[in-house]
């Protein structure tokens, strides 16, 4: 979940948000971006080259620079909050009006993707921008303030402290929240969920030497399991499916995870646990929109067009909360959470064929997911930057054929033979 909870960008003067950006002239830039020792084999680093941000990847001693757009529908890798990206872009495009960012969190925008990877990290180390940045760019940030309703006729937002703030244009990027268990005991003190840096640190220390049970084989749940495997006395993962990632990565890759993690199926037995971690998905933070004319789908995600416009003039929506038309799948509507699994792990109504490069057993492979003889997604392990190259090509609307996927020539993926 990359969007900051209950966060908005409001411009007090009319801003002409361009739907089509003019293409920049091609330029060649040479620059020193890091020392060789700063990037180990298999690692990635986002670096600045001139006025551009690129992703530097080192694999088998070879360096590659690719677009900094991640597989999450072009969300910048290090700028997770949609509203932060919007605010930055407005200032970069010389918008001089008032910009307000509002969050119910007590932290500035931070990288939520790291919560399940560095669970004992201090909050300050996760921040994407420090307060000096907002001061320098004249961006107001209101923390610990939650929206409770929006009036699109009066163009106002009401907050939990009674404040009513007017807007000319508004970007809603309230994201999603973790689903809770719906069963007796779900509110016990040792039942934990991962949403904030405080949650991550609580889980980190609770797992030390403990019998840890994780409910759900979401990506967050499995990442927490991998993180805690050397800390906990035991880890049990409870899933409703036969294999982890069965609906997203497919059974073949699900079996790979079984090689390194024990998974107990849902069976009704009692499992002793010192700590229980819940990772069963998310719900959209759209409750405050109920009663407004803003259109939502059956799961309460906000419906937008390809420019992130809602059905109401001057109301935009971005991030996890949106349901938007994805070009690479012929305009079918997806959500960001769905898209994360779609781009990397097999999209939509199901792939019809998998082409495998490498071997699962060697823990080094690239899997192409095909539908109608075209690649619709890819998943890989220890083959960077191949999946990013595939994601970039698909995001550009360029078709990857079955013949290309089956070919032994992997040079277009910046890979040697697997």
Automatic annotation (TrEMBL):
Fetch the InterPro entries from UniProt: FAD-oxidoreductase/Apoptosis (IPR050446), FAD/NAD-bd_sf (IPR036188), FAD/NAD-binding_dom (IPR023753), FAD/NAD-linked_Rdtase_dimer_sf (IPR016156), Rieske_2Fe-2S (IPR017941), Rieske_2Fe-2S_sf (IPR036922)
Q: Which keywords accompany this UniProt record?
A: 2Fe-2S, FAD, Flavoprotein, Iron, Iron-sulfur, Metal-binding, Oxidoreductase
| Molecular function via GO | 2 iron, 2 sulfur cluster binding; metal ion binding; oxidoreductase activity, acting on NAD(P)H
Tagged with keyword Kinase: no
Q: Which SUPFAM superfamilies match?
A: FAD/NAD(P)-binding domain, FAD/NAD-linked reductases, dimerisation (C-terminal) domain, ISP domain
Range of residues in the leader sequence: none
Gene Ontology cellular component list = cytoplasm
Occurrences of domain Rieske (ranges): 31-86
Family, per the entry? Belongs to the FAD-dependent oxidoreductase family.
Name-wise, this protein is Rieske domain-containing protein
- Organism of derivation: Triplophysa tibetana
Highest classification ranks of the organism: Eukaryota, Metazoa, Chordata, Craniata, Vertebrata
């Amino acid at each position: 979940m990359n969007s900051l909870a209950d966060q908005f960008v409001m411009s007090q003067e009319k801003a002409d948000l361009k739907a089509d950006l003019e293409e920049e002239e091609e330029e060649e830039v040479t620059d020193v971006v890091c020392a060789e020792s700063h990037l180990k084999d298999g690692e990635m680093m986002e670096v600045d080259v001139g006025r551009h941000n690129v992703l530097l990847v080192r694999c088998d001693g070879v360096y590659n620079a690719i677009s900094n757009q991640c597989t999450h529908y072009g969300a910048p890798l290090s700028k997770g909050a949609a509203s932060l990206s919007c605010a930055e872009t407005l200032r970069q495009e010389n918008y001089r009006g008032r910009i307000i960012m509002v969050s119910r969190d007590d932290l500035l925008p931070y990288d939520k993707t790291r919560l399940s990877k560095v669970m004992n990290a201090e909050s300050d180390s996760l921040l994407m921008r420090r307060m000096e940045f907002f001061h320098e760019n004249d961006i107001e940030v209101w923390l610990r303030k939650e929206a409770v309703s929006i009036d699109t006729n009066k163009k106002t937002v009401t907050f939990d402290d009674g404040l009513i703030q007017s807007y000319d244009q508004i970007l809603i990027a309230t994201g999603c929240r973790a689903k809770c268990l719906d069963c007796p005991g779900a509110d016990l003190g040792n039942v934990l969920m991962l949403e904030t840096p405080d949650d991550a640190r609580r889980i980190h220390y609770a797992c030390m030497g403990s019998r840890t049970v994780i409910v759900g084989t979401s990506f967050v749940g499995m990442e927490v399991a991998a993180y805690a495997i050397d800390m906990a006395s035991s880890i049990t993962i409870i899933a409703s499916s036969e294999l982890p990632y069965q609906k997203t990565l497919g059974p073949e890759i699900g079996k790979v995870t079984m090689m390194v993690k024990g998974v107990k199926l849902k069976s009704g037995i009692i499992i002793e646990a010192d700590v229980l971690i819940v990772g069963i998905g998310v719900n959209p933070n759209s409750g405050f929109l109920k009663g407004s004319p803003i259109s939502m789908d059956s799961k309460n995600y906000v419906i937008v067009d390809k420019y992130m416009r809602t059905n109401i003039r001057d109301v935009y929506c971005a991030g996890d909360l949106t349901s938007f038309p994805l070009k690479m799948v012929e305009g079918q509507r997806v959500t960001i959470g769905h898209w994360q699994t779609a781009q990397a792990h097999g999209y939509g109504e199901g792939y019809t064929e998998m082409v495998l490069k490498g071997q699962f057993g060697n823990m080094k492979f690239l899997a192409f997911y095909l539908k109608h003889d075209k690649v619709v997604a890819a998943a890989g392990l220890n083959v960077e930057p191949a999946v990013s190259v595939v994601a970039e090509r698909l995001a550009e609307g360029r078709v990857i054929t079955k013949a290309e996927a089956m070919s032994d020539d992997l040079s277009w993926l910046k890979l040697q033979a697997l």
